[in-house]
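Please go through the protein record below and explain what the tokens say about the fold. Record follows.
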Amino acid sequence: LRALAVPVTAPERLWVLQQQGDEVLDYRKALDEYRFARLSLECGGNHAFVAFERYPAQIIRFLGL
């Protein structure tokens, strides 16, 4: 993942949606790496982000669409 990292030049434009049950990425590392960003952390879930369909309206507002 480090090789894929790019500098974040506008942290206010970053929103991390993370679930603690992610079996691929350690949510604690994401919280640390993106501590400056908007974060939504949920219990349970998995890497596919269970119940993502709850977020479209919030995502549209966040993107200003």
Notes: The beta strands are 15-19, 38-42.
